[in-house]
């Protein structure tokens, strides 16, 4: 357990994965379990922070001592994160946010029709919340952290994503068939906008969370 070095700080963590509805019963989603975001919320609370956890479709119980805001879609997640970020010292975007959503929502369940091919699903872009929070810092010294799951060229892709998003830190995971999603463990590299590179060995998601808060507190001064 670390020092209570986040006392007096407000941190915002997003967790889980957004679901983008097609009709009342169907959605486009992803395999994010929310475990890494919950580990970040728990460890920040243990270090004394006031924590707002914006949870998208996780089946996990609310961590003790954390304000939980439950959301479904990327647009709802954006609203909740921006609202909480207004007075936050740090924003950590661990949620898997859908890059696209179906252009139209059918108010009634979409039905198959005999002898007819299905209609294509047309997608439109979702707002990039991490880029937006990074560009419009609610506070001048606010620390913004993103996550990236990469399957190849992990470091090179991570570096360019860090620049594109404009965040201070980017936690880069290598993902594959059996790695990361839903598991209790994680292995990552944390890239800093200052050029730093912090490798995090394979281990519990709590351990990665503690390292993220170490890097955040150092930047908060
Ligand atoms: O671009 P990519 O989805 O790989 O970026 C991942 C990072 O960006 C995560 O921190 C995720 O929470 C954030 N993100 C976002 N809004 C989006 C897509 C991703 O904030 N529309």
How would you describe this structure to a colleague?
This protein has 221 residues and is of the alpha/beta class. The protein has a single domain (10-98, 119-220), classed as CoaB-like (Rossmann fold, 3-Layer(aba) Sandwich). It has five helices and twelve strands. It has helices at 35-46, 74-85, 129-135, 154-165, 205-220; strands spanning 10-16, 20-23, 26-28, 50-56, 67-71, 90-93, 100-102, 123-125, 143-150, 169-174, 185-192, 197-204. The protein has an eight-stranded mixed beta sheet, sandwiched between helices. A two-stranded antiparallel sheet has the order 2-3. β2 and β3 form a beta hairpin. α1 packs across α5. It is globular and about 65 Å long. The relative contact order is 0.17. The model has no long low-confidence stretch (mean pLDDT 94). The site of cytidine-5'-monophosphate (C5P) has 13 residues, from α3 and β9.
């Amino acid at each position: 357990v670390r020092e209570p070095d986040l006392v007096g700080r407000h941190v915002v963590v997003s967790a889980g994965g957004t679901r983008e509805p097609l009709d009342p019963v169907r959605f486009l989603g992803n395999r994010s379990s929310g475990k890494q975001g919950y580990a970040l919320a728990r460890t920040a609370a243990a270090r004394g922070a006031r924590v707002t956890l914006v949870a998208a479709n996780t089946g996990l119980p609310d961590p003790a001592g954390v304000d939980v805001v439950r959301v479904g879609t990327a647009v709802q997640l954006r609203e909740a994160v921006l609202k909480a970020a207004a007075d936050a010292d740090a924003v950590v975007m661990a949620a898997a946010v859908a890059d696209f959503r179906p252009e139209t929502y059918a108010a009634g369940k979409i039905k198959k029709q005999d002898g007819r091919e299905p209609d294509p699903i047309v997608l439109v872009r979702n707002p990039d919340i991490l880029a937006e929070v990074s560009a419009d810092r609610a506070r001048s010294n606010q620390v913004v952290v993103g996550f990236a799951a990469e399957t190849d060229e992990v470091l090179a892709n991570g570096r360019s994503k860090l620049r594109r998003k404009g965040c201070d830190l980017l936690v880069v995971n290598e993902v594959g068939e059996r790695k990361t999603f839903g598991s209790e463990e994680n292995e990552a590299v944390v890239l800093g906008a200052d050029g730093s590179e912090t490798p995090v060995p394979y281990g519990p998601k709590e351990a990665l969370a503690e390292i993220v808060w170490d890097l955040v507190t150092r930047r908060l001064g």
